[in-house]
Amino acid sequence: MKNRSKLQKIASGIWEYTLSIGIFIAFWFVYVRFADVPAYILPSPGVVWISFVDLFRTGMVWPHLWTTSYEVLFGFFIGSLLGMILGYIFIKIDFLKVALMPYLIFLQTAPKIALVPLFVIWFGIGIVSKIVLIISMVIFPVLSGMMLGLDSIPADVRNLLKVLKANRWQVFSQVEIKYSLPALFSSLKIGIVQAVIGAIVAEWMSGKQGLGYILTYASSTYKISMLLAGIVLTILLGIATYEMVNIFENKLLYWHESKRNQE
C-alpha cells in the first residue's frame, strides 16, 4: 500500500508539472501567434524546441554541459563541506564565530559580478576561479543551516547526555548530526541552486566553455532561439541537481516527521 501511495504521489507530481508547463507554453504560443511578435524578439515554442534539440543533435552542448555540471557539483561539495565544518566550529568556539563571520557575510553580500574579475585575476581564467566563486556562494547558507540545526538541540537532551556521560563522538554521531540534518538539508537545497547560478555567472563573465558561454555566444550573435534553449537547459540542470539533494534528504531523513507525513 505504501509503495502504491508513493507511486500515485509521484505520478500526481509529474502530472502537475506537465500541466503547469503545458499551460505556460500554450500562453506563449498564443501570444507570439496573435500578437505577431517578431522571431528576433521572441521566437515561438516550436522554434526554441528545434534549437534545443539541435544543441544535442550536433553534439555542441555536451562539453559545455559537462563543464558546468562538474563546476556545480565540485564547488557545491567543497562549499558544503566547508560550511558544515565552520558551522560546527562556530557553535563550539564563539570567539571564532565573532572573528570570522563578518568576512563570510562580506562574501555573501558582495555583488558576484564584481567578484568574478577579482577571482579571474587571482586564480586565472580557468575552472579554478569559477569553482572558488561557487564555493563563496554555497558556504554561507550551509554554514547557517548547520548552526541553526545545532542550536535546535533541546537543553534536556544535552543534560541527558551529560548524565549518561556520553563522549564527544557519541554526542556528535547520535544527537548533533541528527538534529542538524533537517535545517542542514534546507540550506543545502539553497546552496545547490546558488551553485548553478554561480557557475553560469562566472562562465558568462569569463568562460570559454560551459552553459554560461553558450548563453554569451547566443546573446552576442543575436540567436534568440539558442539563447532561450540554453536558458531552458540551465533550468533543467538546476532542477536535476536540486532533486539530487532532495533524494538524499528523503533517504537520510526517513525518520523525520515531515517525511513520515508524506507516506
Any overview of this molecule?
The protein has 263 residues and is an all-alpha fold. It has a single domain, classed as MetI-like (MetI-like fold), CATH 1.10.3720. It has 11 helices and no strands. The mean pLDDT is 83.
SS summary, helix count: 11
Shape: globular
Series of H and E elements: HHHHHHHHHHH
Q: Give the C-alpha Rg.
A: 22 Å
Ranges with pLDDT <50 over ≥5 residues? none
Annotated CATH homologous superfamily: MetI-like
And the CATH topology?
A: MetI-like fold
Based on secondary structure, the structural category is mainly alpha
First-last Cα distance: 10 Å
- Roughly how much helix do the residues carry, as a percent range? over 70%
The counted number of beta strands is 0
- Report the mean per-residue pLDDT as an integer: 83
Compile the SSE list and pairings.
Blueprint: H1 2-34, H2 45-57, H3 61-92, H4 94-109, H5 112-123, H6 127-151, H7 155-163, H8 168-206, H9 211-220, H10 224-252, H11 257-260
Helix pairs in contact: 2-10, 3-4, 3-6, 3-8, 3-9, 4-6, 5-6, 5-8, 6-8, 8-9, 8-10, 9-10
